[in-house]
Amino acid sequence: MSSATARPNGFSPAYLVAIMLVASLEFIQNGMLNFAASAVMGGIGAAPEEFSYAAMAYATAAILVLFNHRWCCQWLGLRRFVRLSLLLFGLGAVLCACAASPGAFIMGRAVQGLGGAVFFTAARVEVNGLQERSRMLGLLCFGYALMLGSALGPLLGAQALLHLDWRWIFWGMLPWLVLTLPATRLLSQQAQAQLPAAHSGHSLAWLAAAVLSGQWLIQQLPYDFFSQPQTLLGLLLGCCAAALLASRLQRRHAGQAGRWPAFARLPYLLGLACYFCCYLLVSANSYILPVMVQQALGFDVPTTGRLLSVSFLAGIGFATLYAAALFRRSAPGLRMMLLLACALLALYGLLMAGVSPAVDIRYLVALLLLNGGFMSLFIMAVAQGTFRAVEPEQFAQAYQTKNIIRQLAISMGVAGSTVFLQARNAQHYQRLAEGFSWNNPLFDQAMDYLHQVFPLLGQGQRMAMLAGELGRQAMLLSCQDFFRAEYLIAALLVLLVLWQRQFD
Known about the structure:
This protein is an all-alpha fold. 79% of the residues lie in helices and 0% in strands.
């Protein structure tokens, strides 16, 4: 296969738009899906753990493709690879839209994972190939694409649920794919006749099995995490197996049988750990927030969609300010930026843990601005520290590895948040239900109050209203527990940033 032009001649706004379209696709789809998770589960008759299995299937399929990203790019050329991925992503969207059972939905998400794996990495590698004077603008547009895609997800998802139904979460992706397809002609091609060795099929199969088994065990953890130590041991062994297989495949891919790749130094490894933690929190937030805002706080669907987009739109503002400071060389050091981002996360978690059903919507918007600041500043600072020592010729492989970490973190965020929410909700509901009795004076007062406010309702109807309120209170307490945990994670991140000296 003959070599093609490495990159289109010239640097144009159309080229930036093409990169933004490719980079945003996965974020639009995932944003819509996370927002409409409850509706999708109801539509296909899936339990929360089955919904998280779909996230696992997506991540596992994406990881298999990412391990062969470089090989596919050199065999097909980036342009053809992205076009083929667009078709696979669209096919997966159609399968999900037509799904009538959890199994069919999981299969559709797996096909989407095969297609969606390339978009994020391909767009970022394209930006890295720009000349230094243009790279800053390219990076800013790349970041804008991620934030805009994530912000559009809940907005479009809300409109789909309000005017159509949950299937349009996936049908609605097809126009974006049609719009992106002709834009791919602006991407580089770079097909090569001399190809590196691809990973063997059995190694990839073992890797997929290890990742799936580790995350499946997360779903099987009982509410009492220490009542079955053998389950925890199995989880640990599954994660270790996944890590060892990933290491083996990565070394073989780098052509260095006994050593890590040259770029895998301590700053890079610390950066991967920070990336993992950030994407884990963002994924869990994206799952928990719609549940809290709709089910616990009682906001309607359009308002919830607008609220959930606030964090990502705020992230654009924070990213612009940070980029302007970098351009003027007046930005604080990486350590200070990471500490500022962690402080925003800690404040966000602390204040969200105290939110009540009577919360003012403006106060909630202000809290979501803090979350947007954390996401934007933390990821930008970590990206600077992680890749500054990576040579240009090693960047594609280093970013491919980082994107594998991202897929694992997103999938584990969904799996972990479903387990956490189910466990805490069951516990809180049980405790609150202990007072749901005529022997409780507060219960009597509540029933009398409802009788005064709604005199035409029978006793059974009033009890049903109280039972609904009981469920809402249990869900609110569960979500508040999540944000308390997020506050503690922020504190641990602060200690990590203060302890390490790699991002000075």
